[in-house]
Amino acid sequence: MTPSDSTQAEPAESVPAGRAQPPLARSGLDRAAEERAMPDLLERSRADAATRVLVLNGDLAPLAAADALEWVEPEAAPDGAEWAFLGRRDDGTALLTAASPRAEREPFLAPAGWAALRAVGGGLAPTEAGAFVEALSLGRWLIEAPFCSACGTRTEVRNAGWSRHCPSCGREHFPRTDPAVIVAITSRAHPDRLLLGSNAMWADNRFSCFAGFVEAGESLEAAVAREVREEAGVEVIDVAYRGSQAWPYPRSLMLGFLAAAADDTAAEADGEEILAVRWFERSEIGAGLAGRTDLLLPGPASIAHSLISDWYASTG
Predict the structure, then answer these.
(1) 159-176 per-position pLDDT tens digit
(2) What is the pLDDT of residues 262-308, one digit of tens each?
(3) pTM listed for this prediction
(4) How far does Cα 68 stand from its chain's mean position?
(5) How many Cα atoms sit within 13 Å of 210 on the Cβ side?
(6) What is the rounded distance in angstroms from the CA atom of residue 270 to the CA atom of residue 168?
(7) I want to staple 122 with a disulfide (CB 3.0 to 4.6 A). Which of 23, 81, 103, 145 is the partner?
(8) Secondary structure E strands in the chain
């Protein structure tokens, strides 16, 4: 969670063939990136009543049902929103997002209410989940980074919402993505045990994988080893890459790994960011995933949930 120094780990393996992707990595949406250079793409799409728009109120999106987003006509979007082109449906319909900072009152009523990506992303169809994570990632950048980082001049939106141009110094700016590693730790001696940690900001019975941002000049493998050592006190072996997932809180690309602890007895929380670490038996993880105990595990939209549930479903 908070990087500090660098170290080395064994090389990561590739993702096994056929492994299911995390929920927010399964997008089937055609982003139609080749169209973004058309200077009037947004204007033409907004003027077309057939276009459908995903309106964002902060990190909340409207739902048509528990598992489906509510897409609206362009005229239903609130004034002052930041617009961007998301792509096209199979039938050619243009899909846009209109993003605004979080307001207490939603722009309009939605059939199933408004919800955050982290709450409903795991239950959406792949194309819907992909559109939501794309819209939220892009919309947050458009809202939060309107000025040139070099000279402070307000920038102009270009490429249908995918870049900003500084009219003063000429620099081009693009959405920022910060790589972060997230790791589930198994026991080499006892394959039916999983090490999880409880963050200082969470309830006492909430546990998850270990995670942190990749530092400048650091490899993913080095980041895995450093983060686990810092937060859980253990050295890792058998580091294996398991998949990736965008996580726009605020702008991360989460890179998931499974690794084993070289020495189970070395596990110890850092006492600052991580207040507790604990080895869980496979049966405890299963009960937690099923909601049969008071153990709180990550929600289904997160890659942490995928790492834990994939480990639980394995043969050990």
Answers:
(1) 999 999 999 999 999 999
(2) 999 999 999 999 999 999 999 999 999 999 999 999 999 999 999 99
(3) 0.87
(4) 19
(5) 38
(6) 47
(7) 23
(8) 52-57, 60-65, 68-69, 82-88, 94-100, 114-116, 156-158, 163-165, 172-173, 178-187, 193-199, 210-213, 236-247, 252-261, 274-281
